[in-house]
Amino acid sequence: MAKSTKTVFYCKECGYESPRFMGQCPACRAWNSFVEAPAAKEAKQPGRVDLAGRRGAAAPGVPRRLSEVEAEAEARVSTGFSELDLVLGGGIVPASLILVGGDPGIGKSTLLLQVSGNLARAGHSVLYISGEESLRQIKLRADRLGAFGDEVRFLCETDLDAIAEILKTEKPETVVIDSIQTICREDVTGAPGSVSQVRESTSVLLQLAKGLGITIFIVGHVTKDGQVAGPRMLEHMVDTVLYFEGDKQAAYRILRGIKNRFGSTNEIGVFEMAEDGLREVPNPSEYLIQETTAKASGSVITAAVEGNRPIMLEIQALVFRSGFGMPRRTAAGTDYNRVNLLMAVLEKRLGYRLSDCDAYINIAGGMRVAEPSLDLGIVMAIVSSYKDAALPDKTLVFGEVGLTGEVRAVSQPKARVAEALKLGFSTCIVPKGNLKALKEIQGLKIIGVSDLKEAVSCLEKGKQTGGEPPQDQDN
Ligand code: TYD
Ligand code: MG
Hints:
nine-stranded mixed β-sheet; Ribosomal Protein S5, domain 2; binds magnesium ion; 24% strand
């Protein structure tokens, strides 16, 4: 039927709609983000968007005073994973819409299947709707997860209206939609996963969540080039956005809060992917530095703070004289430009001939961190490898490094040192500016350094000033 072939343009990033193509989105300023899609058949009434992002909401509401609003003490529901509860701000707020985003294959379905199992075991009614996998596939997966029980109900469905009907009749407490990119509505044109479909599905789910008091978890795949509507524009519509990330080769996964209308967003949860599903990692530090080879040159332990949580990491550096004219540098798990900058500071302030050297920097365990407090650790690892001199065993290093080679104070020094103390560390090399805050800490030696020279002097053996780097190191 060539009835209405009218098309509109949507911004892939924020969902801004325009009758013509634009190079830059006037709403979110993203470049080259417009895609053409058939216009939704239902005439949208622009400008009539209520607080929850619903378009064309029915009757206008009545203005109220806050004192008239019943502030029911929010009862939070535990997901059975304390790491997830932490990221959600203390558990699930009933009737919220939660987006779980992440690369395909990272473990979103596994996580939500396990959460469904946990919730059902705690006596909640759960409906798991999959548009991606057949019931058989889900069963196979559930079997791997061990004792799953029979309390969760499953449905393979991609039609939005059918889903809405079922939610209205069944009224489960919690629903999982896996994934939003597979759900579509017949009377909305556009393939499943297109901007118009995703937006329509999400707004219907939002109304169902709020109207029926159902908590809905939505799975959203992030695609590299945003060919299908990335969950980006979804983020504006939902209450909570969690991203599941991690190196697929490494076992650990990080669940990060990106947006949360019911709590802070800077918490992270750490999980490990095992043969029988995801396991919580309550002590990520122990997990990330367990294999540390003590006293190897080029290895330094530092403490980053993710959210309010200190996490200890091992920074490894391999620095040696380059065989070619153009030195090679890589930085895995941290900011490449920052590493280059730190190497330039070392070269200029301490006179090391690093511009002749290849340098490979790696955060062990596949963790990705870009925090200024890592600077000193990176610098120490580079110098340690360059001079083939190790730090004393059980030493923690953190601090920000400035362009003049000064070591600057960082936030939350106490939390970082306390974590080191917990893991039996004996020495901490910290910015001098942080010493005051660490006065009361006992049980380990704290060395305050004010510049790179002082920091580097903590390295044990090796040549004192920037001499020839050892020709080959194979640690
Ligand atoms: P999946 O949850 O399907 O990822 P997503 O829904 O994000 O696309 O699973 C991700 C990977 O996890 C999959 O490649 C297999 C692996 N996996 C395990 O290692 N152990 C397990 O117990 C399960 C269920 C999956
Ligand atoms: Mg999946």
